[in-house]
Amino acid sequence: MGGINKYPIYEILIKFVRDRNPDRNYEKDSWSIKGLRKNRLRDVLHKRTMFRSDVSDDELNDFAQLIWKNSRKQLPNPSKPKFEIQLVDREEWCLGWFFHWTFDVGQSDSEVLESFENFLHRKGVGLNYSYGYPAYEYSSRNKDSYCAMGAEDRWRWHGIKDTKFGNDSENKTPPPCRCPVCKEQGVIRIFH
């Protein structure tokens, strides 16, 4: 493949107040409850996403509204939300919850793996190639550095066989992931 495709990555925060879980104890001085009525709690939905090309403010707001519409049904008595949307990077890979993803533009598996390794090196992340071996000194030990969420362990990388996301060993495949969900969404994932 040619050069590096760098896509706009946005962080979307949706802040709101909702009813507390009555079965849970909350610390009295917690930021999530301080200054609120007894049964209320501050909460945040956080989404990091990547787009194939630049998007307008209206498109970003519509996307954030869709996240809220789909999430608020599961929340107990949520208040009107406050949205914060920020461009955080232009990069080839986007972080999910213990996986990274990029757009499928026809890369071979070896090109995908090379691209992901190069991305991690650009972010200052050293790689462990074998289980139990520490990576060389790298900057992710610094609190301000890139959080790789386990991707620094090369031996953790895997795909999945079907649409059931998870780490059960019988569902894992060699990386990258090209499961039916990835194909339908036009993306490639590397779980870790």
What is the topological layout?
Blueprint: E1 7-19, E2 40-50, H1 57-72, E3 82-91, E4 94-96, E5 99-103, H2 109-122, E6 159-160, E7 172-173, H3 180-185, E8 187-191
Antiparallel strand pairs: 1-2, 1-3, 4-5, 5-8, 6-7
Summed up, the helix count is: 3
**What coarse outline follows from CA principal-axis ratios?**
globular
Query: Compute the gyration radius: what is it?
Result: 19 Å
Q: Roughly what is the average pLDDT, rounded to an integer?
A: 87
Give the beta-strand count. 8
From the structure above, extract its key features.
3 helices; 3-stranded antiparallel beta sheet; 192 residues; 2 domains; globular
Provide structural commentary.
The chain is of the alpha+beta class and 192 residues long. The chain folds into 2 domains: 85 residues; 98 residues, no CATH class. Helix content is 19%, strand content 27%. The chain contains 3 helices and 8 strands; from the N terminus they run E-E-H-E-E-E-H-E-E-H-E. Strands 2-1-3 form a 3-stranded antiparallel beta sheet, covered by helices on one side. A 3-stranded antiparallel beta sheet has the order 4-5-8. The chain is globular, with a radius of gyration of 19 Å.
Provide a concise account of the structure shown.
By secondary structure, the protein is an alpha+beta fold. The protein has helices spanning 57-72, 109-122, 180-185, and strands at residues 7-19, 40-50, 82-91, 94-96, 99-103, 159-160, 172-173, 187-191. It has two domains: 7-91; 94-191, no CATH class.
